[in-house]
Fold this sequence. Notes:
Low-confidence stretches: 1-14
Oligomer: single chain
Strand order of the largest sheet: 1-2
Helix content: 40-55%
Amino acid sequence: MHPHLQSTKTIQKKETIPGKITLPAFNPDHILNMTDSTGIIQHALRNIPNRKEGYCTDDNSRALLLTVLAWKYEGSPEILKLMSVYLSFIHYMQMEDGYFHNFMHYNKQIVIDGSSEDAYGRTIMALGYLTAYGPSPLTIKTAEDIFQKAVPHMDNLISLRGIANSLIGLCMFIGSHHPLDGELSRVGLLADKLVREYHRYSDKEWHWFEEVLTYDNAMIPLALLHAYGITGQEEYLHTAIEAISFLESKVFHDGVLYPVGNNGWSSKGGTTALFDQQPLDAMAMVLFYQQAFHITGDKKYLARGIRSWQWFMGDNALQQPLYDKDTGGCSDGLQPDRVNENQGAESTIAFWIAYFTVAEMLDR
């Protein structure tokens, strides 16, 4: 085992893999309910699509990633139809210069100036996975074309999450192709940006990439794990493990995951908000632990990945499940006194991405 990985402090006195884990059967009903011939609709009014809110590239990219993982694990023809819808949406939203619009009204009017680096990064990540695990040469080639057209924008990214998601997608792309020198150098450029920000904000008490913990936190150290896998640079691994140890100190209490609440976040020198807790953060933790488990084989990461996933199933602050077994949807979050009734695209996709990630970990 790598020495850096031995330094991660335990979350509880005796860390064991939870008892027998029984995953529910994959239920795509709510994903199908939220998807039409254009793409997946962003928001839900309880368990019905809220068409007033339209579509976004963010969620269609997440949905594309989900279909890649579901195809890799389940191989369902139904998944291929969804994959085609989401990939087509992304292609339509790509501008001539390779960047992506983010929002589209339900009447199919694109919102101009609605772009975001987060959406760009998530799209690159999904496309990278598709080039690695796509179901056919034609689908992979389409993903490659969109990916290659978008790649130059990586060099100008500022958003940490945009950088992190792009870096993951780039590493997936390189891992499934003959790496080109330019793409390999981009991995270093993006990873070095993250490491610089880490050193900029870290001190004896605060080990993070910015002055506040907000959303999707674990995706940033996860990107450095992927960069380590491509480059072998020890600094990327060391930084990722040190950062996740700090994040764990903020979000695990007696072995239970408490994702940073969006009602105040967690600022340097301040307190950590407990609510509202978002599914995206639990998913990010699961993805990190899968990659750490893949790199090290250390079962403590398997245990933590399972515990993070169990947040969806009721092992959380309210002891209430966010996953709805009747609809196949997932609640939009935990509020101080209840589970949010709405089952939007982001939350439902986050649950199923975490589901397939844990399923793969358990199969190792």
